Amino acid sequence: MADEIYLTGITTTGTPHIGNYVGAIRPSIAASRDVSKKNFYFLADFHALAKNEDPDKISQSTLEIAAAWLALGMDTENSVLYRQSDIPEIPELTWILTSMTAKGLMNRAHSYKAAVQANLENGSDNDPDKGITMALYSYPILMAADILMFRATKVPVGRDQKQHVEMARDIAQRFNHHFGEVLVLPEPVIDDHTATLAGLDGRKMSKSYNNTIPLFAPEKKLRKLIMKIKTNSLEPGEPKDTADSTLFDIYKAFATPEETAAVEQQYADGVAWGTMKQTLFEYINDHIGPAREEYERLLASPADVEAELQKGAARAREVAVPYIKQIRHAIGIRKLG
Ligand code: TRP
Question: What is the pTM of this model?
Answer without folding.
Answer: 0.93
